[in-house]
Design a protein that fits this description.
The radius of gyration is 25 Å and the shape is globular. Helix 3 packs across helix 14 and helix 9 runs antiparallel to helix 14. The protein is 74% helix and 3% strand. The protein starts with 9 loop residues before the first strand and ends with a helix. The protein is built from 16 helices and 2 strands.
Length: 385
């Protein structure tokens, strides 16, 4: 006697289409629940008014102009790295080596500033920028070449390249610092190659360390969208990402597209390395850019590789990170610190991921009317087999 398979209590089905108002509703609902959970968490852990804690979080970004510009600086860097990864991820080349590409761009920029400091400052800046682009682009080209020619795993390859880049930077640091305990700022006396001090005749806002990266990052968001959606190269990237066999059948040279796209991603990361050395820190180390090379991966996935959505998610993550840091340093409660406050960031990111799930999928619950139809369908499939 044949046994009938029971219908599951809950099934997941992909949505064919969903209206924009409903998308907004699901996203708003998930974020609202996340905010409520975060406020309850702050109240339970601290035992104090949670809205005071929320004020500390906002003050981490908006308390004064110094904090606001610092937030803008970090936002611009995270957005630029996220946009750099977008072409590769659209092509389904999982580049997790942005950290190493930033370091190599910054390293070649440092080499230029150190060994060409006899040249005029503006010329050193131009050469340093080109060196940063070349450094990041070449470091991304290596895994792209091996992927194209030998089919290596790009995730492991680019991840290992991060550690190699960090070791190269540490090696050069040990040489440059000499007998000093640590490497000082490059050209600290002459300031040759320093971006802001070279163009002091410009208005103050243009000489702000956050303004140029912000402007370029926003322009990059627009150009990335146009590049992916409206150009031949963007079309080739999408076709290769969908199916390499289809791309080959269409006459697209997959290896060329792969290497070209990764060089572009690495070049943008190299520009970020240039900003760190020439504009921000004036020094290179293995910890340059922190963990933004990995945080950018989260931004890419949350945004669905949409350059304009990356603007929102980049700012959200920076805002919450700085807010958590400010709350941890504010002595609001002995039970709260920076690490416990980062749980809020986790809850909000989880809420965004859940909103994406409900936008793309729906839950179907078992009912009595559908049970007989389900059993009939499954039994018919078994008999056909």
């Amino acid at each position: 006697m044949k046994t009938m398979k029971k219908e599951p209590l809950i099934r997941i089905a992909k949505r064919n289409d969903i209206s924009r108002p409903r998308k907004f509703f699901y996203t708003f609902l998930c974020l609202l629940v996340a905010c409520v959970i975060s406020i309850l968490f702050l109240f339970i852990v601290s035992g104090k008014n949670p809205f005071t804690a929320v004020l500390y979080i906002f003050n981490g970004t908006f308390q004064n102009s110094i904090k606001a510009w610092s937030t803008i600086k970090e936002f611009a860097i995270l957005l630029a790295i996220s946009l750099a990864l977008t072409p590769a991820y659209t092509m389904k080349f999982w580049n997790v080596g942005a950290q190493g590409q930033i370091l190599m761009g910054g390293l070649l920029c440092s080499v230029t500033m150190i060994y060409l400091n006899f040249l005029p400052s503006y010329l050193v800046i131009i050469i340093s920028l080109l060196a940063g682009i070349v450094g990041g682009g070449l470091w991304a080209f290596i895994p792209a070449f091996f992927k194209s020619k030998f089919g290596t795993n790009e995730t492991l390859f680019t991840l290992m390249m991060n550690y190699i880049a960090a070791l190269l930077v540490t090696f050069c640091n040990d040489i440059w610092k000499g007998n000093s305990p640590q490497m000082g700022q490059i050209n600290s006396t002459t300031k040759v190659g320093w971006l802001t001090t070279t163009f002091e005749f410009l208005p103050d806002i243009l000489n702000n360390k956050a303004f140029i990266p912000l402007l370029l990052s926003l322009l990059l968001a627009v150009t990335t969208f146009i590049y992916i959606k409206k150009t031949k190269h963007g079309y080739e990237i999408k076709v290769v990402g969908e199916s390499k066999n289809t791309a080959k059948y269409s006459g697209i040279r997959v290896s060329l597209v792969t290497m070209r796209t990764l060089i572009l991603s690495g070049a943008i990361c190299g520009i970020v390395g240039f900003f760190y050395v020439s504009l921000y820190d004036h020094v290179i180390s293995a910890t340059t850019s922190g963990a933004y090379g990995f945080t950018a991966i989260i931004v890419c996935w949350l945004s669905g590789f949409n350059p304009f959505m990356m603007i929102i998610y980049s700012f959200l993550i920076i805002f919450l990170n700085r807010g958590a840091s400010n709350l941890g340093n504010a002595n609001f409660s002995d039970s709260l610190n920076e690490y416990s406050c980062e749980l809020i960031l986790f809850v909000i990111i989880l809420a965004i991921m859940l909103s994406h799930f409900f936008v793309n999928y729906r839950l179907i619950y078992r009912d009595r009317k559908s049970k007989d139809r389900y059993l009939l369908l499954t039994s018919g499939i078994k008999e056909a087999k």
